[in-house]
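Blinded run. Sample ID left blank on purpose so nobody reads anything into the name before looking at the predicted structure. Input follows.
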Amino acid sequence: MTAKQGQNILITGASGMIGSALRDRLAADGYSVYSLERNSLDAPFCYLHDLDRVILDPALPLFAVINLAGPSIADKRWTPARKEFILQSRKRLTAALADALSKARRKPDLFLSASAIGFYGEGGDTVADEDSPAGTDFLAEVGQQWEQATAAAEQADINTIHLRLGVVLSPQGGMLKQLLLPFKLGLGGPVGNGSQYMSWISIVDVLEIICFLLDKKPSVKALNLVAEEPITNSQFGAELAKKLHRPNFLPLPAALVKILFGEMGEVLLLGNSRVKSSRLSQLGIELRNPTLATALDSILD
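Blinded prediction complete.
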């Protein structure tokens, strides 16, 4: 029996883009992987939504918990009600989970809780890393409150790491999946003037980093999961079009973005996100896909 066999890991958001890929990877590595089920008392691990309570099976002590749950921020316009839902859904589940872990008879060795590089806010040309302060816009507020919701686990001395995710590239979901069809049809092009930066990471490297953290269990408060170099929207479109052997010349004007998507489009499609990680290299983590070209080759071939 390997060290991983018999170690129980709980994943929230296990049906999502990252969660489903991670579940398969961890199971293949020999872990016993469980999902947090909603309102299902028959499940060993259950979230009672209306009561804001997580129930853990004491017969299945957890080695680690990976909290990835949260509705998409990009599938609907940001009405006041939608923004409140985005915030509260993340905050409430995370707080309930942290509270349950803090009270567990046997506490997990590691609690990995998702956050996002939106924590730093829209920074213009400023490059942020893990030591940079939080921003002040909507996504920054979501990031701060999401991370603060793990307080009970941290106060119980559970090693807690906030995973500040960049734009995760996967053909199974997220931004890349949405862009594949229009680009394959030859309808790709820059958004706005194309000069805005995005900080990205391949799904392959997200899984590798999480597996590294499970193995090494470092004591770091937060970790930016991003590739080494942010790229502009124009650079991204050109690289994707090159990979797909398609043209890249149909722009989406900024004015139309604002009309179609409102504040959500302004922030996610037109905003600048220049974020790097100083801690990945400090931990000795080398990305398998450090460039966009290698990432697209890895996940689209």
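Unblinding after everyone has recorded impressions. Residues 47 and 54 are 4 Å apart (CA to CA).
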